[in-house]
């Protein structure tokens, strides 16, 4: 670890407070102090950024650009201090000033520029790139409003705006010297040149300006600081060019407001394509700003585009930035005058595409009519890409109209639509899924014809998470214990956790490991008390289901088991073997009726159970509002049981599953996403796998009748009847009938009924096993010891070697 000189730390804080905030240190609020410490840390980061940049430039390094419509970096002060290796020293300095660092850490606003897994993955990847000293940079949008804040009123989700300090945050560096110009709207004018060749011209477009802010991304060890570059939209200053009268004047101002709304707000759904024009403009805005910036940087040190794919890699995080295919072609051909064929070679060699979902409702398609209005030149280019591609398909597979139809970028039949996944696949040299099972489904179910055409293009990169945030920072108790036992090499080489395995036979270590978990549960119990006003027992099993609320993730199945357990106590007088606390957290997309109803159901069930003196000594149910990165950091270290019970085949990977397992929770899960690989690595005896598998579900789907399962299982029948009754919604009779009917009358698309009995059995086994405290601790340690593979460092090394061809520059 490089040693960073902090002798000027105090003085720099004082100077900041005095000359930036105009305050004496004794008058500073906690927020002022947070800003002061952060701005001093930021100075250190900037020094290292410049040094890093010199290193990359000198080596003429190939750079990777990670384009993502979402980034969820989480709070940065604690992370930066730890990654720079100055946390302890800084804490001590502050102590001499009577300032408690932990109080300051809590002042930081959680930047919520993402919905969940996809954006958080992007943030973990940036952490690993910097830690591995690799030139990898994030490109995203600087939204004014991040994901909504969730509050609960009478058991219902309310959404409140989350304005984050997106101009004034100490972590944002305004780059007023860099500006992007993005043309939009207008029309195509065809002209013929002297040889009579058709020359399309994009005319009458309007200009959006992209303003740039950078967030420095510090790698662990303090050697490398990369950056996350965020764009915000601004109307061009000469937007008022043609004002002839008052009406025009107001129209011009309205237009300005419209343009500036492009980066106003993050779309709050993680599983439903938004389909609104504003969202398309956001995607295009991100792509156009990024491509311009990437080319500008490349041309600083290179001439022509021959070397472009050797110096530049671009990764498309899902299809949201898939317009990069058309934009890169447009810039190469229209702006820099390349011929189509070399431009196409460059484009496909540069781009890689990561798929994150198979859910049909999440796959993006855009009406041709919208593209025609917003980006007419790109539409033309997409048509040309498609025309050439279909030629190729016809050559390879003559007389096969089915193939042409399935692989065309344009879907005919009714309103013509652009299929963004097809565009991304055709324009990239690599297509990857995010867990082994998911990548197999991408090849064999989602786009089998593309796989047949280009098998070499398809690959898997199982997701990973950064151990810096998810162990070192979130779980200091566990980190300290691990470091005492095996040294601190694990922080940047997580496979070293393997060396904990023999310690399962060390009774002192076992005891201390259990103590760490217990201390984390006490902390969590306090948070639960403050946020839900429910008192929970740290000695009960903490069973946590924290993720977005979605039918495919089956929070409903969890509730069914809770209601079943409740009825066993109430009606059958059967007492469980150990007390349990069922903990839920997660946001529902604002327009997702059944997800929001599920939140109400959890609260309704919680109300009845927690207030029943016969039941509440055994089970309690809490819903912690406003799930976000900082809450996850508090929840995960306190979990005994991790719920990963999605309907098999639906969760692309999951990343919470990895974080829980690393922190010693035992998984109750289906064979879905990366849980399959977690099971393989920790061993079947150290988690609880249950339920239908992907191929079983595929085979059953045609004939599946959920009623058969209800009629043949009196326990399930009883549970479903109670859900339909008004026991959990006395004040709003009938509201849960819709959830009941979704499974009974509308086919139970996610197989809750079919998996119910296996889930109940598994949960009962968990309670039995937990009573053997020593054995539970051993299995918990093995979860930590055997999940080193799920470090994002491993994932990034694979991306770097197989797709990006980038190297470390230490
Ligand atoms: C998202 O978070 C994910 C997929 C997607 O298409 C859109 C969003 Cl916003 C998630 C997957 O659901 C999850 O399984 C996966 O672990 C995560 O992306 C990262 O790959």
Automatic annotation (TrEMBL):
SUPFAM superfamilies: UDP-Glycosyltransferase/glycogen phosphorylase. Allosteric enzyme that catalyzes the rate-limiting step in glycogen catabolism, the phosphorolytic cleavage of glycogen to produce glucose-1-phosphate, and plays a central role in maintaining cellular and organismal glucose homeostasis. The keyword Lipid biosynthesis does not apply. The lineage of its organism: Bacteria, Pseudomonadati, Thermodesulfobacteriota, Desulfobacteria, Desulfobacterales. GO terms for biological process: glycogen catabolic process. Its cofactor is pyridoxal 5'-phosphate. Belongs to the glycogen phosphorylase family. It is an enzyme of class 2 (transferase). One of its GO terms (molecular function) is pyridoxal phosphate binding. It comes from Desulforapulum autotrophicum (strain ATCC 43914 / DSM 3382 / VKM B-1955 / HRM2). Its EC number is 2.4.1.1. The modification N6-(pyridoxal phosphate)lysine is found at residue 659. Keywords: Carbohydrate metabolism, Glycogen metabolism, Glycosyltransferase, Pyridoxal phosphate, Transferase. This is Alpha-1,4 glucan phosphorylase.
């Amino acid at each position: 670890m490089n040693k960073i000189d902090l002798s000027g730390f105090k003085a720099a804080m004082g100077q900041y407070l005095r000359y930036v905030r105009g305050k004496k240190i004794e008058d500073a609020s906690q927020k002022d102090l947070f800003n002061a410490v952060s701005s001093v840390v930021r100075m250190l980061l900037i020094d290292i950024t410049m040094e890093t940049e010199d290193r990359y430039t000198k080596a003429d390094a190939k750079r990777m650009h990670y384009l993502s419509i979402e980034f969820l970096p989480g709070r940065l002060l604690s992370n930066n201090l730890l990654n720079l290796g100055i946390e302890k020293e800084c804490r001590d300095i502050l102590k001499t000033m009577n300032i408690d660092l932990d109080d300051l850490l809590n002042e930081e606003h959680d930047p919520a520029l993402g919905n969940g897994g996809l954006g958080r993955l992007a943030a973990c990847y940036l952490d690993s790139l910097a830690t591995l000293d690799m030139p990898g940079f994030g490109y995203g949008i600087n939204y004014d409003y991040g994901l909504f804040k969730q509050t609960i009123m009478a058991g219902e989700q309310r959404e409140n705006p989350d304005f984050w300090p997106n101009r004034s945050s100490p972590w944002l560096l305004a780059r007023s010297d860099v500006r992007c110009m993005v043309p939009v709207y207008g029309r195509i004018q065809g002209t013929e040149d002297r040889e009579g060749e058709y020359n399309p011209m994009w005319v009458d477009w309007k200009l959006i300006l992209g303003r740039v802010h950078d967030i420095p991304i510090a790698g662990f060890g303090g050697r490398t600081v990369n950056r996350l570059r965020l764009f915000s939209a601004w109307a061009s200053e000469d937007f008022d060019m043609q004002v002839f009268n008052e009406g025009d004047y107001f129209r011009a101002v309205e237009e300005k407001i419209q343009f500036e709304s492009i980066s106003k707000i993050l779309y709050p759904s993680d599983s439903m394509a938004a389909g609104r024009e504003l969202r398309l403009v956001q995607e295009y805005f991100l792509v156009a700003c990024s491509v311009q910036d990437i080319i500008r940087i490349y041309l600083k040190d290179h001439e022509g585009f021959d070397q472009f794919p050797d110096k530049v890699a671009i990764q498309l995080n899902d299809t949201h930035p898939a317009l990069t295919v058309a934009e890169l072609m447009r810039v190469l051909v229209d702006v820099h005058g390349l011929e189509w064929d070399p431009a196409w070679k460059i484009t496909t060699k540069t781009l890689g595409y990561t798929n994150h979902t198979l859910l049909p409702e999440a796959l993006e398609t855009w009406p041709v009519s919208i593209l025609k209005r917003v980006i007419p030149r790109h539409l033309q280019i997409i048509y040309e890409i498609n025309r050439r591609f279909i030629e190729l398909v016809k050559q390879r597979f003559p007389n096969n109209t089915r193939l042409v139809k399935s692989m065309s970028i344009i879907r005919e039949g009714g309103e013509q639509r652009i299929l963004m996944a097809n565009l991304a696949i055709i324009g990239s040299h690599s297509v990857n899924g995010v867990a082994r099972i998911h990548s197999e489904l991408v090849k064999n179910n989602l786009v089998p014809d593309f796989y047949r055409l280009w098998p070499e293009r398809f690959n898997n990169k199982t997701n990973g998470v950064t151990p810096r945030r998810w162990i070192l920072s979130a779980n200091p108790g566990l980190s300290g214990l691990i470091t005492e036992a095996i040294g601190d090499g694990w922080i940047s080489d997580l496979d070293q956790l393997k060396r904990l395995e023999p310690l399962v036979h060390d009774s002192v270590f076992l005891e201390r490991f259990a103590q760490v978990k217990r201390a984390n549960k006490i902390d969590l119990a306090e948070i639960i008390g403050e946020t839900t006003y429910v008192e929970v027992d740290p000695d009960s099993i903490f069973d946590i289901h924290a993720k977005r609320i979605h039918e495919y993730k089956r929070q409903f199945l969890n509730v069914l088991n809770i209601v079943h357990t409740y009825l066993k106590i109430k009606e059958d007088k059967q007492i469980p073997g150990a007390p349990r606390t069922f903990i839920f957290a997660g946001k529902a997309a604002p327009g997702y009726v059944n997800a929001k109803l599920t939140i109400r159901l959890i609260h309704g069930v919680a109300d009845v159970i927690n207030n029943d003196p016969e039941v509440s000594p055994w089970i309690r149910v809490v819903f912690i509002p406003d799930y976000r990165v900082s809450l996850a950091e508090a929840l995960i270290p306190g979990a005994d049981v991790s719920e990963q019970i999605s309907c098999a085949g639906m969760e692309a990977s999951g990343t919470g599953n990895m974080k829980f397992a690393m922190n010693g929770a035992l998984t109750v899960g289906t064979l879905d996403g990366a849980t399959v690989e977690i099971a393989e690595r920790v061993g079947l005896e150290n988690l609880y796998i249950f339920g239908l598998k992907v191929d079983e579900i595929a085979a059953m789907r045609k004939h599946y009748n959920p009623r058969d399962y209800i009629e043949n299982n009196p326990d399930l029948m009883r549970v479903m009847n109670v859900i339909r009754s008004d026991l959990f919604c006395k004040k709003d009779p009938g509201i849960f009938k819709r959830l009941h009917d979704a499974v009974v009358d509308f086919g139970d698309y996610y197989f809750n009924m079919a998996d119910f009995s296996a889930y109940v059995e598994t949960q009962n086994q968990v309670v039995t096993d937990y009573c053997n405290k020593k054995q539970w601790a051993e299995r918990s340690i093995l979860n930590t010891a055997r999940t080193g593979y799920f470090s994002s460092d491993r994932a990034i090394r694979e991306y770097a070697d197989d797709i990006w061809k980038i190297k470390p520059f230490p």
